[in-house]
Amino acid sequence: MSPPRPWEAIDFKLQPAQYMQAVLQSAITDNDPIQWQLGKHPVNGWVHAPWMAQDRDPFNGLTFERQSLKFELHPNQTQGHTNYAVGIYNAIAARAFAKMWADPADPSTVDFAMEPGAVAVKLLFSTAPDAEVPYLKGSISVDVCDDHVQRKARLAQVDIAVRDTDANSLTGWLFGTFIYSSDTATTFSWSDVHPFTLQWGNDKDVWPTGLHIPPDAFPATAAALPALSESWYDPFYRDRLWAWRVSKGVTPWTGLFGRSNGPIDNPVSSCLSCHNTAADFGHGSDELPFTRPAPAWVAEVLAGTAPRPELKSYFETRGADVPILQGTLALDYSLQAMKGILNFRAWAKCRGDNVQGDIAPYTGPKPKDLVAGSQECERFLQASGDVFADTLAPPPDDNSVMSSEAPPGDLMDDLVFGGRDTQLPMDQRSARE
Ligand code: HEC
Q1: What is the pLDDT of residues 179-230, one digit of tens each?
Q2: Ligand 1: which of 275, 339, 342, 416 to mutate, judged by most atoms within 8 Å of the beta carbon?
Q3: Does residue 266 line the site of ligand 1, with CB under 6 A?
Q4: Cα(271) to centroid(ligand 1), Å
C-alpha cells in the first residue's frame, strides 16, 4: 500500500512552504521514531541508495559535501567548514532502485524512472562552530571523520526532492531546501528547520543581462535580479543571508542569479540544473564526461556578455528522461543513482570483470578510464570496503526483496554499508524528548 501523500493536495506555487512542510513531515513521521537509523529498522520502507560506500565517511556513512567557504554561512566565519550529508529515499522511490538492481551483478539503467510520490530527503551537517555560525545553536549533531579527526557536525540544511505529476509541464520534479536557524535553542526541534526555497523549473530564459557587477560589489538586495517564476524563496531568510554575504563581498545568491539552492550549495548552480545531469555514461570512472559551470562563465555574464551555450545548456529545462549528453541514459534527477552506477562500473573495471550492464551507447569524449591493476584502481578497491569482497555480486539472502514489487529494505542497507555500523547517533535527541 502506498503511504499517504498529503502534499499533493497543496498547490506548490501558491503555498510552497506548506507543500515543503508536508513532504518533510512524511520523512519525520517515519524516521524520527527510529532516529533515522534505516539500517537497523528497514521495515518503514525508506532506503539508502546502493553502491555509494566509497563516497561515505567511515563513522556513519555520510557523504562528503561541498565546503562552505569563509563568510558563506555567516559574517563571523573565520574559515571554511566541511559539510557531510546523508540522503534517503521513500518506498516509492526505492522501487526504481529495486528494478535497477534486480540483478545485482548486471544493473539495468534503461528507463530508470521514479513513480509519482517518490521522495528523497537529504540531511546536511556542518562542522562550523557556534562562534562562527551562531544560528546553528541546539541543532542535532552527528560524529564525522573530518580530515582524519573525529568532529561533531550539526544539521544545517535539509533538502527534499519530490516526483509530482503537478510539475510535469517542466521537469516532473520539485526540489526544495530547509535551513536550521535558532540563535537560542539548547535542544533540537524540527520547528527550527525553516523552508528556505522551492524550485520546479530552471527559468531557462532568464539571464540578467546588463547587471555589470564589478568584482565584490554585489547589489544591496535581491530585488536587483530579474524575477524568476519557477522557484520560491522565503524572503526573510534569503534577504538575511544576502545582506550578510554582501557585507563581506561574497556572492549573495545561493543559486545562480537567484535560482534555488541552499546556503551550503554552489552559487553557480541550482538544485534542478545539477540534478538534471544524473545519467549513466556507461563508463567505469569517477570522473564525469562534461564540465559543470565554472565561476569564469558567470563572471562573463556579470560583465555584460551573453551566457555561453554550455552555461545555458546546464540550466535548460529537460524532462526526466532526457540526458544532458546525447547517447547517455538519463537517471531521473537522482545523483545517488548516478554515483552508484559509476561506482559499480569502476569496480567492475578495476577487477578486470567485463560486466558493464546496459552500457550506454555514448561515443563522445570520455574521461580517463580506470585500468585494472593501476594505483587508482587499488585505491578505489581499498576504499570500497566490505561491499566489494571477493565475489562479483554479494548474493542476497533472499532474492525476492529485490523484485520491483517490494521495497528492497535491508538488502539496500547491506549493499550501502557492507556490514559497517550504520548508526546515526543524533546525540541531542534524548535531551529533546
Ligand atoms: C552542484 C551539484 C548539486 C547541487 C547544486 C545540488 N545537489 Fe543535491 N546532490 C548532489 C549530489 C552529487 C548528490 C548525490 C550524493 C549525495 O547524496 O551527497 C545529491 C543528492 C541529493 C539528494 C539525495 C537524492 C539524490 O537525488 O541523489 C537530494 C534529495 C538532493 N540532493 C536535493 C538537492 C536540493 C534540494 C538542492 C538544491 C537546494 C540540491 N540537491 C542541489 C549534487 C547537487
Answers
A1: 999 999 999 999 999 999 999 999 999 998 777 777 678 889 999 899 999 9
A2: 275
A3: yes
A4: 7
